[in-house]
Amino acid sequence: MPGFIPRTPWPADFPEVAIHSVQKIRDSHPFYAAAKSGDPVAAKALVMDLLAMDAADRLGRLLAGRRPLVLAVTADEVTGFNVIPDAMAQALAAELGLAAAAGCVVQSTKVGHTKASGWHRLVTPPLFTGDVVAGADYRLVDDHVGFGGTLANLRGFVEHHGGHVPGMTTLTETREARHSAVRQDVPDVLSNKHGYELEQFWRAEFGHGTECLTNIEAGYLCRVESVAAIKDRMAEAAESARRRGFSAGFEMPPDSPGGLTGRA
């Protein structure tokens, strides 16, 4: 696990992720499997069928005179190279009269998040590499938002390198995942449940505070009984991820309270 994941806090007015379709329709689409596995022709056909013009219009209104670069999540997944985000970026850029930042920033780790557990997602954070234009706005694009960690990490990468992310869009979402920015009351709930111990642990492990979590991530941690249990489940997930060939460096010292020697 890298010691520093470059995330940034969410502004109070950060907009919802603009969603274009629903999973049931996407999953039953005849070109979805091929598109998810790297077929660019299938990806273009899928996107042209499912891209919602009302969502595109909403994105256009949110631009407010800005001319952001459209940046897709570029990732090698278990089923192959996922070309759906790039097809979306190209289509949206054409529709909105913007430029697509194709290949400028790419995901540098293979994380296997599709249909993965929340714990697997937390211990295998996607990392990015590439060039960001300092001072430029970027509209982020992915095919799906679940926990929201991939988009949050890409946003953090862009903003740590001088860019700005005014919004994000995906083809589909897991329920309520469009609310990526942590809601105002959630940090208080998290603090009341786990105190400063979780904040200390999160900063030491990931290099950012809990204010940078997505709303889904924060809610997930709120439902766990203790910080010791969080550490234990993360250690187990990391061990499982490594056995499957994914990069996950989190390890709980054997003598730590609530570690692998005993769950709190």
From TrEMBL:
<feature type="region of interest" description="Disordered">
    <location>
        <begin position="242"/>
        <end position="264"/>
    </location>
</feature>
<protein>
    <submittedName>
        <fullName>Uncharacterized protein</fullName>
    </submittedName>
</protein>
<dbReference type="InterPro" id="IPR029057">
    <property type="entry name" value="PRTase-like"/>
</dbReference>
